[in-house]
């Protein structure tokens, strides 16, 4: 947004009187008509005082109007006819000075004096300035104006009016260049940097204005009147001088950084091509004083200066994310391009949005969340501010598709991929591969940066991404790996013959009962570090997590209860509020000892509370599953692996490395330890595990055929990236599958796979063949059908695309709108059906509670009441019923109850399910409802679903009382926190955005200062996004069309 013009400040009576009674200029100034006239006015005596009035006529203080005899304008007008040339020269100084009141330095070397340019211009027109009076007495007039300007403008003019060396000699020839420099020096708000195009156009526009001014004899009256009127109408912006100077310095540094980033020079600006304010923010918000040596080396790589793609790999906790964030800020601020950051999980996306919103508010870019059901396709095209899109893998793919479809993929300057090794992990890996391949194929200006702690076959990835590779074996805290067999601990040693060397024996006295309860000596291992230090125990299953937490607390000394006792009681109280009075009995037993479990069986709110308590040191021990290692960052002094298994599968090297990577907290611990508990029977397997290399990363386009290969082929044709079989084959040669085709497609060649895939899509009615005849030559091309377009735009799995279409079509015949039950069935995700095992008594009870209209829905989908009743009573079923429909309807009952009660605890008890399962079902349903909405938007016959699904998606996303939804839109604010904020009077987004963090800390229980600041920043960011979107919409509506009939 453009800054408002600066208002003219009022002058005091005393100041006005002093100015009017200034003694006349000496003889040396009398040669200028302006000076003569000013002297004559000054010698007439003090004018009569006009009464003080705050009306509009008195907006210029003692200058009662534009036309009074003693007004500034009257003085100038009287001088104008006397000598037009001088008046014209003065007009070049005075209004220009006023207009430059909002100017900012864009280029560091733009120090040519405006005065010198004006004098040079006078010489060209034949006007000679007397040597005895370098600027003439017209300078007094300018000085009188300067007296009225804010000090921030005076500082600017002081810099502008100091000519650089040699500028006096070449003033005449450098007039236009100096004008360009000064005109491009607009002081913009540092929080709203405008695009390069706008920036570059300013100097051109201004130099043309200057030329036209020299041709036209514009009167000084018009110049002054226009300038003073515009300034007077503008509201006075109350901004401190310190803030103005800081913003000017920030904007100048961004301009310097822009030049530096485009330069191959090693010296790339104050802070890696970024303003020093970024360094200050890192210190304030993250506590980062200096970068590690490897981070500096990586950021100054020549390939990054040349905007080449990069893959970099370091151990967990090595500081990879900070490098990515600095590269992101360079792209947003210096290159003025949008950025996409792809992260593996929704929780990490929300954490990153939460963390980077503060930077966005301070530095003037937008942070937009693309996870679950959130995200706009295509994203809003911003005029001034640039956007950082933080997305999950699936939403990132949809975002890239929408940008390609609207020819905006070039707006994306940088794509950052965290956990790049996920390319090799199932359907999500296939989706990530498709996303990156499309970016590489369609945009030459977008560069890609990928990072991971666990990469092995880097050569294949380099070839796929056309990237350079950087790696370092660096950890800020040393990690020592140990193996425990019986009561002996061995250190992992790659130089040893069997991979291990003896370290020590456990020194812990076990009673006979304790030996039976804890045969793996877990209590001995954890009591060596807790409660002073933190500890994580990774367990194979969720149930094992709870058992380990309970067992440890059963045998811990009572002294552990006194450590931070009040804060533990507060945590229990929080968890009770989350569960509406209910709390897990295991957590109620373990939290007083500083112990808890962490797995997917907890609700989002419970997990958040436990994570925060562990980060603060209230909890010192977490028993968790492997998902924590790949999720949020919760490091520990010691990491214990309960067994070398994840569920029933033996541990992979990548998983092992991720788990032990949590050991050692930078800035807190001086060492980190990992201990893998091994049974004698697994000893040889573990030896192979610790000595083997990391697993290779292979393409999943073929194994995940419907979500991978077929989905890719469909979107290629739909986006018109490739419309013939040959073009499709050419694209696939540029994928990871194309790089690895000799390894992965041994039975069929890649061209045969393409042919089979396209034929399958044609059979399903998702693609069709077009024959184009030109010059007696026919060309076979591919086109997407309406159903195919709906499928790829909605990211619908092609294995159930036709089923979804049939059910939506059937729903139109008798859509029951008495409640949301029928609509919920259509939005229940297919991929959770196979894991559902209905409790038939609960099924029958829920069915009987439906209204008559709602019961007809069950008949429509093929699940009659008689079938449910026979199942509940254990009778034999003669007529077969589709089990997928039965299970899907049962899941719909859970969602329907959840929307009515908005309490996961009570619903999980009612259906005898874990809270985590119900939470996961809710999240999946919200995401799938969003996909079905995009699917329906492409099919005209489903117009009725659009409005209905929009509201349903919103309710599934938040699943709270309506009044809490605005608060839960803020990243990091979940239901429990939203309730606290609402009850404290923060009822809208505007309330949160304008809240004082210190007041929040005092008002909201268990809210740290850091969390309060992040909530306020996130709210401000969201409010800014919404305001920007509305402004864009307004400007689009008011934009005058260029093709109006009858206009040339």
From TrEMBL:
InterPro entries xrefs: DEAD/DEAH_box_helicase_dom, Hel308_SKI2-like, Helicase_ATP-bd, Helicase_C-like, HTH_61, P-loop_NTPase, POLQ-like_helical, WH_DNA-bd_sf
Catalytic activity: Couples ATP hydrolysis with the unwinding of duplex DNA by translocating in the 3'-5' direction; ATP + H2O = ADP + phosphate + H(+)
PANTHER family the record matches: DNA POLYMERASE THETA, PUTATIVE (AFU_ORTHOLOGUE AFUA_1G05260)-RELATED, HELICASE POLQ-LIKE
Protein name (Swiss-Prot/TrEMBL): Helicase POLQ-like
A molecular-function term among this protein's GO annotations: hydrolase activity
Keywords: ATP-binding, Chromosome, DNA damage, DNA repair, DNA-binding, Helicase, Hydrolase, Isomerase, Nucleotide-binding, Nucleus
Biased amino acid composition, Basic residues: 8-22
Region (Disordered): 1-63, 79-141, 167-205
Keyword ATP-binding: yes
Claim: Lyase is one of the keywords in the record: no
CDD domains: DEXHc_POLQ-like, SF2_C_Ski2
EC number: 5.6.2.4
Assigned protein family: Belongs to the helicase family. SKI2 subfamily.
Helicase ATP-binding domain: residues covered: 301-473
Localization terms from the record: Chromosome; Nucleus
Main location: nucleus
UniProt feature, compositional bias: Basic and acidic residues: 174-188
Pfam families: DEAD (PF00270), Helicase_C (PF00271), HTH_61 (PF20470), POLQ_helical (PF21099)
Stretches of the chain forming a coiled coil according to its record: none
Lineage: Eukaryota, Metazoa, Chordata, Craniata, Vertebrata
Record organism: Cairina moschata (Muscovy duck)
Gene Ontology biological process: DNA repair
Family annotation (SUPFAM superfamilies): P-loop containing nucleoside triphosphate hydrolases, Sec63 N-terminal domain-like, Winged helix' DNA-binding domain
Function: Single-stranded 3'-5' DNA helicase that plays a key role in homology-driven double-strand break (DSB) repair. Involved in different DSB repair mechanisms that are guided by annealing of extensive stretches of complementary bases at break ends, such as microhomology-mediated end-joining (MMEJ), single-strand annealing (SSA) or synthesis-dependent strand annealing (SDSA). Possesses both DNA unwinding and annealing activities. Forms a complex with RAD51, stimulating HELQ DNA helicase activity and ability to unwing DNA. Efficiently unwinds substrates containing 3' overhangs or a D-loop.
